[in-house]
Amino acid sequence: MNSLAPTRRTNPLRDLQTFGQSVWLDYIRRNLITSGELQRLVDEDGLQGVTSNPAIFEKAITSSDDYTIAIGELARQGLSDPKAIFEALAILDIQAAANVLRPVYQRTHFRDGFVSLEVSPQLAHDTAGTVEEARRLWTRVSRPNAMIKVPATVEGIGAIRELIGDGINLNVTLLFSTEMYERVADAYITGLETLARRGGDLNRLASVASFFISRIDATIDAGLTSRMLQGGLAERAALESVRGRVAIANARLAYEGYTRIYRSERWRRLSEEGAQTQRLLWASTSTKNPAYRDVAYVEELIGPDTVN
Protein backbone atom coordinates (compact mmCIF):
# COMPACT_ATOMS: atom_id res chain seq x y z
CA MET A 1 0.00 0.00 0.00
CA ASN A 2 1.33 3.42 -0.95
CA SER A 3 1.48 5.48 2.25
CA LEU A 4 1.67 8.63 0.13
CA ALA A 5 -1.66 7.94 -1.58
CA PRO A 6 -4.08 10.86 -1.14
CA THR A 7 -6.70 10.37 1.54
CA ARG A 8 -10.36 11.08 0.89
CA ARG A 9 -11.36 14.37 2.49
CA THR A 10 -14.71 14.52 4.20
CA ASN A 11 -16.96 17.54 4.10
CA PRO A 12 -18.01 18.50 7.66
CA LEU A 13 -21.18 20.19 6.38
CA ARG A 14 -22.28 17.01 4.64
CA ASP A 15 -21.26 15.02 7.72
CA LEU A 16 -23.89 16.90 9.74
CA GLN A 17 -26.58 15.23 7.64
CA THR A 18 -25.54 11.83 9.00
CA PHE A 19 -26.65 13.12 12.43
CA GLY A 20 -30.00 14.30 11.10
CA GLN A 21 -29.14 18.00 10.95
CA SER A 22 -29.70 20.17 7.88
CA VAL A 23 -27.55 23.18 6.98
CA TRP A 24 -29.27 26.32 5.69
CA LEU A 25 -27.62 29.55 4.59
CA ASP A 26 -28.72 32.79 6.27
CA TYR A 27 -27.81 35.00 3.32
CA ILE A 28 -29.06 35.92 -0.12
CA ARG A 29 -27.91 38.19 -2.93
CA ARG A 30 -28.67 38.14 -6.63
CA ASN A 31 -25.07 37.44 -7.63
CA LEU A 32 -25.05 34.41 -5.31
CA ILE A 33 -27.66 32.89 -7.61
CA THR A 34 -26.64 34.22 -11.04
CA SER A 35 -22.96 33.33 -10.54
CA GLY A 36 -23.80 29.69 -9.85
CA GLU A 37 -22.41 29.89 -6.31
CA LEU A 38 -25.70 28.85 -4.72
CA GLN A 39 -25.85 25.81 -7.00
CA ARG A 40 -22.26 24.97 -6.06
CA LEU A 41 -23.09 25.14 -2.35
CA VAL A 42 -25.97 22.74 -2.94
CA ASP A 43 -23.92 20.35 -5.05
CA GLU A 44 -20.63 20.36 -3.13
CA ASP A 45 -21.54 21.29 0.46
CA GLY A 46 -25.00 19.77 0.63
CA LEU A 47 -26.72 23.09 1.38
CA GLN A 48 -30.39 22.37 2.05
CA GLY A 49 -32.06 25.75 2.50
CA VAL A 50 -31.77 29.55 2.49
CA THR A 51 -33.17 32.16 4.84
CA SER A 52 -33.36 35.92 4.45
CA ASN A 53 -34.53 39.00 6.30
CA PRO A 54 -34.97 42.68 5.42
CA ALA A 55 -31.49 43.56 6.76
CA ILE A 56 -29.84 40.96 4.52
CA PHE A 57 -31.68 42.28 1.48
CA GLU A 58 -30.90 45.90 2.38
CA LYS A 59 -27.19 45.12 2.50
CA ALA A 60 -27.34 43.16 -0.74
CA ILE A 61 -29.13 45.94 -2.60
CA THR A 62 -27.20 48.93 -1.24
CA SER A 63 -23.70 47.43 -1.24
CA SER A 64 -23.61 46.08 -4.79
CA ASP A 65 -24.61 46.94 -8.34
CA ASP A 66 -26.43 43.62 -8.75
CA TYR A 67 -29.79 45.37 -8.76
CA THR A 68 -29.10 48.53 -10.75
CA ILE A 69 -30.59 47.28 -14.02
CA ALA A 70 -33.59 45.71 -12.28
CA ILE A 71 -34.34 48.91 -10.35
CA GLY A 72 -34.17 50.92 -13.59
CA GLU A 73 -36.58 48.49 -15.26
CA LEU A 74 -39.04 48.73 -12.37
CA ALA A 75 -38.86 52.53 -12.54
CA ARG A 76 -39.61 52.42 -16.27
CA GLN A 77 -42.65 50.31 -15.43
CA GLY A 78 -43.88 53.15 -13.23
CA LEU A 79 -42.95 51.66 -9.85
CA SER A 80 -41.76 54.47 -7.56
CA ASP A 81 -42.67 53.39 -4.01
CA PRO A 82 -39.46 52.23 -2.25
CA LYS A 83 -41.23 49.43 -0.38
CA ALA A 84 -42.82 48.12 -3.57
CA ILE A 85 -39.45 48.19 -5.37
CA PHE A 86 -37.76 46.42 -2.46
CA GLU A 87 -40.46 43.74 -2.39
CA ALA A 88 -40.29 43.18 -6.14
CA LEU A 89 -36.50 42.73 -6.01
CA ALA A 90 -36.67 40.44 -2.99
CA ILE A 91 -39.37 38.23 -4.48
CA LEU A 92 -37.38 37.73 -7.69
CA ASP A 93 -34.39 36.55 -5.62
CA ILE A 94 -36.56 34.26 -3.49
CA GLN A 95 -38.12 32.72 -6.58
CA ALA A 96 -34.74 32.18 -8.25
CA ALA A 97 -33.23 30.62 -5.11
CA ALA A 98 -36.31 28.41 -4.69
CA ASN A 99 -35.84 27.17 -8.25
CA VAL A 100 -32.24 26.16 -7.46
CA LEU A 101 -33.34 24.35 -4.29
CA ARG A 102 -36.42 22.68 -5.80
CA PRO A 103 -34.55 19.36 -6.43
CA VAL A 104 -33.56 19.30 -2.72
CA TYR A 105 -37.20 19.86 -1.82
CA GLN A 106 -38.27 16.93 -3.99
CA ARG A 107 -35.43 14.63 -2.93
CA THR A 108 -36.07 15.15 0.80
CA HIS A 109 -39.83 14.65 0.37
CA PHE A 110 -40.67 18.27 1.24
CA ARG A 111 -38.50 18.33 4.39
CA ASP A 112 -35.75 20.66 3.09
CA GLY A 113 -35.03 22.85 0.08
CA PHE A 114 -36.85 25.92 1.43
CA VAL A 115 -36.19 29.64 0.96
CA SER A 116 -37.60 32.07 3.55
CA LEU A 117 -39.03 35.55 3.02
CA GLU A 118 -40.00 37.67 6.04
CA VAL A 119 -43.12 39.74 6.57
CA SER A 120 -42.53 43.39 7.42
CA PRO A 121 -41.07 43.83 10.94
CA GLN A 122 -43.57 46.68 11.37
CA LEU A 123 -46.30 44.03 11.59
CA ALA A 124 -44.71 42.14 14.47
CA HIS A 125 -47.52 43.11 16.85
CA ASP A 126 -50.36 43.07 14.33
CA THR A 127 -52.00 39.65 13.98
CA ALA A 128 -54.39 40.55 11.17
CA GLY A 129 -51.73 42.52 9.29
CA THR A 130 -49.26 39.64 9.55
CA VAL A 131 -51.81 37.15 8.22
CA GLU A 132 -52.75 39.44 5.32
CA GLU A 133 -49.14 40.13 4.30
CA ALA A 134 -48.04 36.50 4.69
CA ARG A 135 -50.88 35.34 2.43
CA ARG A 136 -50.03 38.02 -0.12
CA LEU A 137 -46.31 37.17 -0.17
CA TRP A 138 -47.04 33.45 -0.37
CA THR A 139 -49.22 34.05 -3.42
CA ARG A 140 -46.72 36.39 -5.08
CA VAL A 141 -43.72 34.10 -4.58
CA SER A 142 -45.79 31.14 -5.83
CA ARG A 143 -43.24 28.44 -5.03
CA PRO A 144 -44.11 25.29 -3.02
CA ASN A 145 -40.70 25.42 -1.34
CA ALA A 146 -41.05 28.99 -0.10
CA MET A 147 -41.39 29.74 3.61
CA ILE A 148 -42.87 32.92 5.02
CA LYS A 149 -41.11 34.23 8.11
CA VAL A 150 -43.33 35.30 11.00
CA PRO A 151 -41.93 36.63 14.32
CA ALA A 152 -42.72 34.75 17.53
CA THR A 153 -44.48 37.60 19.27
CA VAL A 154 -47.63 37.23 21.37
CA GLU A 155 -49.59 38.60 18.41
CA GLY A 156 -47.75 36.27 16.07
CA ILE A 157 -49.13 33.16 17.78
CA GLY A 158 -52.61 33.70 16.37
CA ALA A 159 -51.14 34.40 12.93
CA ILE A 160 -49.19 31.13 13.05
CA ARG A 161 -52.33 29.12 13.82
CA GLU A 162 -54.24 30.77 10.99
CA LEU A 163 -51.50 30.57 8.37
CA ILE A 164 -50.64 26.93 9.08
CA GLY A 165 -54.36 26.21 8.83
CA ASP A 166 -54.19 27.81 5.36
CA GLY A 167 -51.39 25.42 4.36
CA ILE A 168 -48.66 28.08 4.19
CA ASN A 169 -45.09 27.02 5.07
CA LEU A 170 -43.75 29.11 7.96
CA ASN A 171 -40.39 29.96 9.44
CA VAL A 172 -41.28 31.21 12.93
CA THR A 173 -38.41 33.48 13.91
CA LEU A 174 -36.96 35.38 16.87
CA LEU A 175 -37.53 32.69 19.50
CA PHE A 176 -35.53 33.12 22.70
CA SER A 177 -37.47 31.39 25.49
CA THR A 178 -38.60 27.81 25.95
CA GLU A 179 -42.00 29.05 27.10
CA MET A 180 -42.62 30.90 23.84
CA TYR A 181 -41.24 27.96 21.85
CA GLU A 182 -43.87 25.67 23.35
CA ARG A 183 -46.59 28.20 22.53
CA VAL A 184 -45.35 28.27 18.93
CA ALA A 185 -45.34 24.46 18.75
CA ASP A 186 -48.89 24.38 20.08
CA ALA A 187 -49.98 26.98 17.49
CA TYR A 188 -48.35 24.88 14.75
CA ILE A 189 -50.15 21.72 15.85
CA THR A 190 -53.47 23.56 16.21
CA GLY A 191 -53.02 24.94 12.69
CA LEU A 192 -52.32 21.45 11.35
CA GLU A 193 -55.49 20.15 13.00
CA THR A 194 -57.42 22.90 11.19
CA LEU A 195 -55.70 22.03 7.91
CA ALA A 196 -56.57 18.35 8.40
CA ARG A 197 -60.25 19.18 8.96
CA ARG A 198 -60.20 21.19 5.74
CA GLY A 199 -58.80 18.20 3.84
CA GLY A 200 -55.37 19.78 3.27
CA ASP A 201 -52.19 17.87 2.42
CA LEU A 202 -50.32 17.67 5.73
CA ASN A 203 -47.32 15.95 4.17
CA ARG A 204 -46.40 19.00 2.10
CA LEU A 205 -46.79 21.54 4.90
CA ALA A 206 -43.46 22.40 6.54
CA SER A 207 -42.35 24.74 9.30
CA VAL A 208 -39.30 25.52 11.40
CA ALA A 209 -39.01 27.33 14.74
CA SER A 210 -35.93 29.56 14.66
CA PHE A 211 -34.42 29.58 18.15
CA PHE A 212 -31.72 32.20 18.67
CA ILE A 213 -28.50 31.27 20.46
CA SER A 214 -25.55 33.66 20.68
CA ARG A 215 -27.59 36.79 21.43
CA ILE A 216 -28.63 35.20 24.73
CA ASP A 217 -25.05 34.69 25.89
CA ALA A 218 -24.12 38.18 24.71
CA THR A 219 -26.75 39.60 27.07
CA ILE A 220 -26.18 37.18 29.95
CA ASP A 221 -22.38 37.47 29.81
CA ALA A 222 -22.57 41.24 30.12
CA GLY A 223 -24.55 40.86 33.35
CA LEU A 224 -22.17 38.19 34.63
CA THR A 225 -19.16 40.43 34.02
CA SER A 226 -20.78 43.25 35.99
CA ARG A 227 -21.51 40.96 38.94
CA MET A 228 -18.04 39.38 38.83
CA LEU A 229 -16.47 42.80 39.31
CA GLN A 230 -18.42 43.20 42.53
CA GLY A 231 -18.29 39.66 43.96
CA GLY A 232 -15.78 37.68 45.98
CA LEU A 233 -13.53 34.88 44.72
CA ALA A 234 -16.09 32.10 45.21
CA GLU A 235 -18.87 34.02 43.48
CA ARG A 236 -16.60 35.02 40.61
CA ALA A 237 -15.60 31.40 40.07
CA ALA A 238 -19.23 30.29 40.07
CA LEU A 239 -20.22 32.99 37.63
CA GLU A 240 -17.26 32.25 35.38
CA SER A 241 -18.31 28.60 35.14
CA VAL A 242 -21.56 29.53 33.37
CA ARG A 243 -20.15 32.21 31.08
CA GLY A 244 -20.94 31.27 27.49
CA ARG A 245 -23.04 28.27 28.57
CA VAL A 246 -26.51 29.69 29.19
CA ALA A 247 -27.54 29.87 25.53
CA ILE A 248 -26.63 26.24 24.87
CA ALA A 249 -28.45 25.08 28.01
CA ASN A 250 -31.50 27.07 26.94
CA ALA A 251 -31.44 25.49 23.48
CA ARG A 252 -31.15 22.00 24.94
CA LEU A 253 -34.21 22.64 27.09
CA ALA A 254 -36.10 23.69 23.97
CA TYR A 255 -35.01 20.48 22.24
CA GLU A 256 -36.23 18.45 25.23
CA GLY A 257 -39.57 20.19 24.77
CA TYR A 258 -39.52 19.30 21.08
CA THR A 259 -38.99 15.58 21.75
CA ARG A 260 -41.76 15.57 24.37
CA ILE A 261 -44.29 17.45 22.23
CA TYR A 262 -43.76 15.24 19.20
CA ARG A 263 -44.10 12.02 21.18
CA SER A 264 -47.58 12.96 22.39
CA GLU A 265 -50.81 11.19 21.48
CA ARG A 266 -52.08 14.44 19.99
CA TRP A 267 -49.15 14.49 17.60
CA ARG A 268 -49.38 10.77 16.79
CA ARG A 269 -52.81 11.30 15.22
CA LEU A 270 -51.46 14.05 12.94
CA SER A 271 -48.34 12.03 12.12
CA GLU A 272 -50.53 9.18 10.90
CA GLU A 273 -52.04 11.64 8.42
CA GLY A 274 -48.56 12.51 7.11
CA ALA A 275 -47.75 15.62 9.17
CA GLN A 276 -44.13 16.69 9.61
CA THR A 277 -42.72 17.93 12.90
CA GLN A 278 -41.84 21.59 13.16
CA ARG A 279 -38.08 21.35 13.46
CA LEU A 280 -35.99 23.60 15.65
CA LEU A 281 -33.67 25.82 13.64
CA TRP A 282 -30.64 27.06 15.58
CA ALA A 283 -30.26 30.70 14.55
CA SER A 284 -27.54 33.20 15.40
CA THR A 285 -24.95 30.48 15.92
CA SER A 286 -21.93 32.62 15.08
CA THR A 287 -20.15 33.58 18.28
CA LYS A 288 -20.31 37.24 19.30
CA ASN A 289 -17.47 36.93 21.84
CA PRO A 290 -14.05 36.61 20.12
CA ALA A 291 -12.83 34.61 23.13
CA TYR A 292 -15.14 31.73 22.15
CA ARG A 293 -14.37 29.22 19.42
CA ASP A 294 -16.18 30.14 16.22
CA VAL A 295 -17.97 26.76 16.11
CA ALA A 296 -18.85 26.63 19.82
CA TYR A 297 -22.58 26.97 19.13
CA VAL A 298 -22.45 24.63 16.14
CA GLU A 299 -20.73 21.61 17.68
CA GLU A 300 -22.80 21.70 20.84
CA LEU A 301 -26.15 21.66 19.02
CA ILE A 302 -25.82 18.85 16.50
CA GLY A 303 -28.81 16.55 16.68
CA PRO A 304 -31.63 14.80 14.81
CA ASP A 305 -34.47 16.84 13.32
CA THR A 306 -32.68 20.16 13.63
CA VAL A 307 -31.50 22.85 11.23
CA ASN A 308 -28.48 25.10 11.65
Structure description:
The chain is α/β, with parallel strands linked by helices and 308 residues long. Helices cover 54% and strands 12% of the residues. The chain contains 14 helices and 9 strands. The chain has a 9-stranded parallel sheet. Helix 9 packs parallel to helix 12 (246-261). The longest helix has 26 residues, at 82-107. The model has no long low-confidence stretch (mean pLDDT 94).
Oligomer category: single chain
Shape: globular
Q: What is the rounded distance between the termini?
A: 40 Å
Low-confidence stretches: none
- Give the ordered list of helices and strands: HEEHHEHHHEHEHEHEHHHHEHE
Instruction: Indicate the proportion of strand residues.
Output: 5-15%
Let me know the largest β-sheet: 9 strands, parallel
Mean pLDDT: 94
Strand order of the largest sheet: 1-9-8-7-6-5-4-3-2
User: Measured on Cα atoms, how large is the radius of gyration?
Assistant: 21 Å
Structural class: alpha/beta
Number of helices: 14
Q: How many strands appear in the DSSP assignment?
A: 9
Helix content bin: 40-55%
Task: Provide a short characterization of the protein structure.
This protein is an alpha/beta fold. It is 54% helix and 12% strand.
How do the helices and strands line up, and which of them pair or pack?
Elements: H1 12-17, E1 21-22, E2 24-26, H2 30-34, H3 37-45, E3 49-51, H4 54-62, H5 68-76, H6 82-107, E4 114-118, H7 127-141, E5 146-151, H8 154-165, E6 170-175, H9 178-197, E7 207-212, H10 214-230, H11 233-242, H12 246-261, H13 265-272, E8 279-283, H14 296-299, E9 306-307
Parallel strand pairs: 1-9, 2-3, 3-4, 4-5, 5-6, 6-7, 7-8, 8-9
